[in-house]
Write a structure and sequence with these properties.
mainly beta; Superoxide dismutase copper/zinc binding domain-containing protein; 36% strand; 9-stranded antiparallel beta sheet; 9 strands
Length: 150
């Protein structure tokens, strides 16, 4: 972090470490909806703006091959506010149409239609909550994370 030294080299852009979540923490969710192993999503989502800042390139790196398969049938929501009871999206990203898996299946790349503001601020994504949902199921996210500097 900011205090001390790290052996990890900065990659630039942003990162959101995504982890599976329990449905009961969201409106409409309950303990009766456990995630199956095939729906769980673990991994990191990286964002980097292109040279002209016209678009944002995103890369998902799953912790396992199943996470990468799950990712292709999802969309992500970057939330304006952290309140789980209200839905105020800042951005919605459809990975289903856009993502291209790597040859080994470990990463997926896609271009966000417009450039995301990769800073802190009113329109910035740093510090924002991101949730990942199965297509057609906005009420029960399958993973979440916080976007931070990479």
């Amino acid at each position: 972090m900011c205090n001390g030294h790290s052996t990890r080299t900065s990659q630039g852009g942003t990162i959101a470490v995504l982890r599976p979540i329990c449905p009961r923490y969201f409106p409409g969710g309950s303990d009766n909806e456990p995630q199956s192993r095939t729906e769980q999503l673990n991994g990191s989502l990286f964002f980097q703006n292109g040279l002209a800042n016209l678009h944002t390139q995103a890369v998902f790196r799953g912790d396992n091959l199943q996470s990468n398969r799950t990712f292709h049938n999802c969309f992500a929501v970057i939330h304006k506010y952290g309140d789980n009871d209200k839905f105020h999206p800042l951005h919605q990203l459809d990975m289903r149409r856009e993502s291209i898996p790597s040859d080994d299946g470990r990463t997926s790349e896609f271009t966000v239609g417009k450039a995301l503001d990769l800073t802190v601020g009113e329109n910035g994504v740093i510090g924002r909550r991101i949730t990942v949902h199965r297509m057609g199921n906005l009420s029960s996210p399958i993973a979440e994370g916080i976007i931070g500097w990479n």
